[in-house]
């Protein structure tokens, strides 16, 4: 083989190598840009809570001990012994998982009362929810519409945001009943039912609005009626019947919503019936776009007490922690319990005594 032929063969070989490299590069780029491949990569990445839920980072999928904090909304019965000051009770407890069984013990000596002078028509300091947002604890008064920061060390509330009812133009206070975090935004919701005018006629839709709050305190009112009414339809409720929502949580791990109505009634509001017989027995699940609904039943359902707050166990978001409350005039009681995402009991409900606790949150062990 002469020199000219050898050079020609080499040039062909080099060209072929470049073609193979180019073709391989194109295939690699296409592969890396393939959503199916990217989704598999994301699935393999371990989930970590963002800064908005930094308080959950102390825990892990293997954690078996958790600290919780819960706050009271004792309505007009929240006056101290002098009948002059409105108090909110702040209590603590520990959750333990032993084998497959969960247990709860209250840290009685750690609890304290907080006084607040913010009132609306002689009522106030009725905290219906508590949540950790950007490493700070916030509580929400469903009578004044004020969101307060809780200072555990000094046992005080500091007013941080005041919200008006409905779309934000009302002269009455927003009634926050539930709170959850979606990515970097705090969602606050009201009951999701029609309001009655003074004459008892349905005439206002203010309770269908939610508030979306950012880290800097800026918030916007959003009409959430399509979600609430979808839930009514799923549960077979129509006017004058109603659902009253006080317990909602979003799973940032599984990208799903969970709504646990406190009350479900197929008849018009009646105080006695509402207090004793109308408690909710269902939890409604949606995907993050409020599609693909699924309804499951609470295996510990009791018609006299309904959901007032729910949270998901950090990094174990197939476990629901909840409070249920009973109220009939001045008779109040709260129960704590746990279930899985099929409604199966994971912890037998335990009474927290003669107070109406309506907000619970999981906090770091060292607080």
What is the string of helix and strand elements? Answer: HHEEEEEEEEEEEEEEHEEHEEEEEEE
In terms of per-residue confidence, which ranges show pLDDT below 50 for 5 or more consecutive residues?
A: none
Q: Count the E strands.
A: 23
CATH topology name of the largest domain: Neuraminidase
CATH H-level homologous superfamily name of the largest domain: Apyrase
First-last Cα distance: 84 Å
Helix % is: 10-25%
**What is the mean pLDDT?**
90
Which structural category fits the helices and strands?
A: alpha+beta
Radius of gyration: 26 Å
Can you tell me the number of structural domains?
2
Proper CATH architecture of the largest domain: 6 Propeller
CATH class assignment of the largest domain: Mainly Beta
* Count of alpha and pi helical runs: 4
| Share of β-strand residues | 35-45%
Biggest sheet statistics: 5 strands, antiparallel
Question: What's the overall geometry?
Answer: globular
């Amino acid at each position: 083989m002469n020199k000219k032929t050898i050079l020609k063969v080499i040039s062909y070989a080099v060209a072929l190598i470049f073609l193979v490299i180019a073709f391989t590069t194109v295939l690699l780029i296409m592969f890396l840009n393939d959503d199916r491949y990217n989704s598999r990569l994301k699935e393999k990445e371990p989930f970590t809570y963002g800064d908005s839920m930094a308080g959950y980072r102390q825990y892990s999928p293997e954690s078996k001990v958790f600290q919780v904090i819960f706050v009271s909304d004792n309505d007009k019965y929240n006056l101290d012994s002098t009948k002059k000051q409105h108090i909110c009770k702040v209590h603590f407890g520990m959750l333990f998982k032993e084998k497959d069984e969960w247990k709860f013990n209250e840290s009685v000596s750690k609890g304290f009362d907080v006084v607040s002078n913010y009132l609306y028509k002689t009522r106030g300091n009725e905290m219906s929810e508590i949540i950790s947002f950007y490493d700070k604890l916030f509580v929400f008064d469903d009578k004044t519409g004020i969101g307060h920061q809780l200072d555990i060390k000094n046992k005080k509330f500091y007013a941080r945001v005041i919200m008006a009812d409905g779309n934000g133009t009302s002269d009455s206070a927003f009634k926050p009943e539930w709170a959850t975090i979606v990515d970097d935004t705090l969602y606050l919701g009201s009951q999701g039912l029609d309001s009655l005018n003074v004459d008892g006629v349905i005439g206002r839709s203010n309770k269908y609005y939610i508030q979306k709050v950012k880290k800097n305190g800026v918030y916007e009112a959003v009409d959430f009626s399509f979600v609430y009414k979808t839930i009514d339809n799923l549960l077979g409720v129509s006017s004058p019947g109603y659902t009253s929502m006080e317990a909602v949580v979003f799973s940032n791990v599984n990208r799903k919503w969970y709504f646990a109505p406190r009350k479900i009634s197929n008849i018009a509001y009646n105080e006695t019936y509402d207090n004793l017989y109308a408690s909710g027995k269902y939890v409604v699940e949606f995907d993050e776009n409020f599609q693909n609904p699924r309804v499951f039943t609470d295996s510990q359902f009791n018609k006299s007490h309904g959901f007032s707050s729910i949270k998901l166990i950090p990094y174990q978001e197939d476990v629901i922690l909840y409070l249920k409350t009973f109220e009939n005039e001045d008779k109040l009681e709260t129960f704590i319990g746990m279930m899985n995402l099929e409604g199966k009991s994971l912890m037998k409900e335990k009474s927290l005594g003669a107070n109406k606790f309506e907000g619970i949150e999981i906090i770091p062990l060292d607080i």
